[in-house]
Amino acid sequence: MARILLILSLLISAGTCYLGFVTKGKVEALQTDLSGTKTNLATTTDTLKQTKAKLQQTEEKLTAANATIEEKEKEIAAQKEEKDKLGKELAEANALVKAKTEEMASVTGELAKLKEKLGAGNPEELAASVEQLKGDLEKLKLELAEVTQVRTTLEQQKKDLDEKLTASTKLIEDYKAQFTRPGLTGKVMAYNPGWNFVVLNLGDKHGVRANAQLLVTRGSQMIAKVRVTNVEPSTSIADIVPGSESKSLRMQPGDSVIYEGK
From the CA atom positions of the chain, what is the Rg in Å? Predict the structure, then answer.
């Protein structure tokens, strides 16, 4: 009986040691997992802070750009109104130049006819008519010169205004071209690990711009960051940002992309 109790005691002791060893291993594994989780959490927190900082910078730039665009759009509206006004004034000046030219041609014709009649009729009356027509002709020449100058000035003003209008419009387009449309999402169409780039199903018509940075995700997990290098109408090519790739997930076609600025 004592021998049996001794054996049972040894078995219980061995079992206790084994359970303690197994439990210790599990505790160490859990501590390792917890340490890794804390590290991943710290990395994710840092990434989130960086993303928030970039978002704030992007929003500040976008606000400034929108203010500039709004100001330029007001300038364009005023310039278009001024252009319409100049167009009407130029049309009136052209009509006046034409009328004065026709009037000069008529006076010149009458003067030529009177000179032919100088040999007949009352010379004094004809001479007086000739002098009057000469005076009218000189007056018309001055008026024609004035309206021609007015027309030239209006044409130059219209040209200057057209150049300003073109410059303002281009400035707005340039400002808009710097920013990718907020809230933009899409998919990875292809992935080339050898050259470290992806093809996206987003292009110029969707609002993608060169140098835009997007996040590649799968579900709620981030896989990598990509930066657009080439934009086509319906697709774009983006390089993977060094050091941004997930260590546990490998990028693949079908992964989601979202513009990091939103």
Answer: 43
From CA 100, how far away is CA 147, in angstroms rounded?
9
Domain range spanning residue 142? 65-177
Residue 208: predicted pLDDT: 85
- Token pair 């310039």: residue: 79
| Same domain flag for 196 and 245 | yes
| 5-39 pLDDT, tens digit each | 666 565 566 556 555 555 666 666 666 766 666 67
pTM: 0.38
Query: Element (H or E) spanning 145, and its range?
Result: helix 123-177
Distance from C-alpha of 239 to C-alpha of 192, rounded to nearest angstrom = 10
Choosing from 150, 177, 204, the residue where a domain stops is 177
C-beta separation of 185 from 257 below 8 A: yes
> What CATH code is carried by the domain that includes residue 69?
1.10.287
